Amino acid sequence: MPFKLTEEFRETAARIRARYPRADAALIPLLHEVQREKGYVAEEAMDELAKFLELPYSRVKAVVTFYTMFNRAPAGKYHLQVCRNISCHMAGAPGLLARLREKLAIGEGETTADGLFTLSSVECLGACGAAPVMQVNETYFENLTLEKLDALLEDMRHGRLLTGAKEK
Ligand code: FES
Fold it and tell me: Cα(48)–Cα(104) distance, rounded to whole angstroms?
């Protein structure tokens, strides 16, 4: 369905915009709002936001493509984002990714056929002291082990995990 800024969204967006002296400072908060609402930031949404903020489309697109936290396509109910940077790498992130690839039978950037899981590896999540770290939707899981990961997957499969995302 094409993205259109609804009246309700425009009101929210105007409130967010008013908090910042410059339009470009409101861009990231508004992108978060779109993602919270739709689950991802479609090309049409970037175009609409660019018009709303009177910014060049290329500026909006550059921000969305730079930050891995913004999904550019619909993600699964649980978006598993494993940090791949040095602290997490040294603490076992490659093993976590391998376990997820094996158990979910998908590669990075893919979504399971049932729409439950999307798997990504991402740059530093800023919680290096608790490596290895995985972000699931808006929630961080730290000091992960393979056993903890298996238990988390079971909780997600049975709908027992709250991750701050809207139910889809
Ligand atoms: S290296 Fe993984 S959170 Fe920083």
Answer: 35
